[in-house]
Amino acid sequence: MASIKGPAPAPTSFPGADKLRIGIVHARWNEECITPLVNGSVESMVKAGVRPENIVIESVPGSWELPIGTSRMIAASQVQASSNVSDLMGATSLLDGGSGTSTPAPAAAAAASSSGGKASRAALDAVISIGVLIKGSTMHFEYISESCCQGLMKVGLDTNVPVILGVLTALTEDQALERSGVGRNGNKGHNHGLDWGNAAVEMALKANKWAEGSFSSA
């Protein structure tokens, strides 16, 4: 029997996506899953019309740091939008193609370098927070999972900037790999980063409309 789980198909058209600036903040734990998830998010956002140079990517040590990283990334972009300082983030993003603390993401870097456009300095319209938690033999998994997810929800509600939950909470390594699209033993699974990218674009556009007092159907 086929599973009924999963989102309905994403919209096929995202008018205005080319004007968006979207952030990704990702943990560095479990890099084998993180890299394809980041790449999948970038791939779907670019396909939706977001300009690669307007996708800002930062890393933090682990999923525990995702809420503060997301919050400060949003705040930094708002400062950047009203400042002439060239780099308020103080770290190298995946799209810069430089060294530093970010996880290499070849597809993301290639998309940015091929575009050649000038990056926006507007405040971020949405942020995807990406982490991968895999259950071990202690309660660490439960504490981090719940705190991280609640923290990310609070950031979105407090800032009014859509925060997309890109945190996998897997019971096994195989579950994590399959949900990153790189599963083993012939079962690659589905890259959930593709879904998160579409969700970020859709929510960014809708939130901008709502902020103007209008709705998609208006």
UniProtKB/TrEMBL annotation:
Pfam families (UniProt xref): DMRL_synthase (PF00885)
Role: Catalyzes the formation of 6,7-dimethyl-8-ribityllumazine by condensation of 5-amino-6-(D-ribitylamino)uracil with 3,4-dihydroxy-2-butanone 4-phosphate. This is the penultimate step in the biosynthesis of riboflavin.
SUPFAM superfamilies: Lumazine synthase
Name of the top EC class for this enzyme: transferase
GO cellular component: mitochondrial intermembrane space; riboflavin synthase complex
Catalytic activity: (2S)-2-hydroxy-3-oxobutyl phosphate + 5-amino-6-(D-ribitylamino)uracil = 6,7-dimethyl-8-(1-D-ribityl)lumazine + phosphate + 2 H2O + H(+)
HAMAP family to which the protein is assigned, alphabetical: Lumazine_synth (MF_00178)
Family affiliation: Belongs to the DMRL synthase family.
Protein name as annotated: 6,7-dimethyl-8-ribityllumazine synthase
GO molecular function: 6,7-dimethyl-8-ribityllumazine synthase activity
Pathway listed: Cofactor biosynthesis; riboflavin biosynthesis; riboflavin from 2-hydroxy-3-oxobutyl phosphate and 5-amino-6-(D-ribitylamino)uracil: step 1/2
Highest taxon listed in the record's lineage: Eukaryota
GO-annotated biological processes: riboflavin biosynthetic process
PANTHER family in the record: 6,7-DIMETHYL-8-RIBITYLLUMAZINE SYNTHASE, 6,7-DIMETHYL-8-RIBITYLLUMAZINE SYNTHASE DMRL SYNTHASE LUMAZINE SYNTHASE
Keywords: Riboflavin biosynthesis, Transferase
Enzyme Commission number: 2.5.1.78
InterPro entries: LS, LS/RS, LS/RS_sf
